[in-house]
Amino acid sequence: MEEYFGSYAVVLVLLALGAAIFAGALAANRALRPDRPTAEKLATYECGVDPVGEGWAQSQVRYYVFTYLYVVFAVDAVFLFPWATVFAAPGFGPATLVEMFVFLGFIALGIVYAWRKRVLTWT
């Protein structure tokens, strides 16, 4: 039983060591950095433009929808590249072809749903 818990002890020691190194690096950074705050340095800064108005702005939901669609297509591309490499391997042709068409069917179904709900219109 000691061997079983011994492996957990090694993991905990390494975790504590990693946390100590991380905390030491942060402490060294705080101790060695220059600290000369001025009013100009403490002002809000956004892309080189002086802030105007309030700090609160609302975003429209459609921007999030386009972000989700981008993520869907990015995931689709991530799955297409390994599929293309495995497709040429012997014994994987028909099975991987069917699986990819099922996957692409789900993606197409999501795009048709978004199109029917008029999510893809930019107005």
UniProtKB/TrEMBL annotation:
A Pfam family matched in the record: Oxidored_q4
Record membrane topology: Multi-pass membrane protein
Catalytic activity reported: a quinone + NADH + 5 H(+)(in) = a quinol + NAD(+) + 4 H(+)(out)
Main enzyme class: translocase
Localisation: Cell membrane; Membrane
Transmembrane segments: 6-28, 68-89, 95-115
EC number in record: 7.1.1.-
Keyword tags: Membrane, NAD, Quinone, Transmembrane, Transmembrane helix, Transport
Principal subcellular localisation of the protein: membrane
Gene3D superfamilies: NADH:ubiquinone/plastoquinone oxidoreductase, chain 3
Homology family: Belongs to the complex I subunit 3 family.
Job of this protein: NDH-1 shuttles electrons from NADH, via FMN and iron-sulfur (Fe-S) centers, to quinones in the respiratory chain.
Protein name (database record): NADH-quinone oxidoreductase subunit
Natural source organism: Planomonospora alba
Taxonomic path: Bacteria, Bacillati, Actinomycetota, Actinomycetes, Streptosporangiales
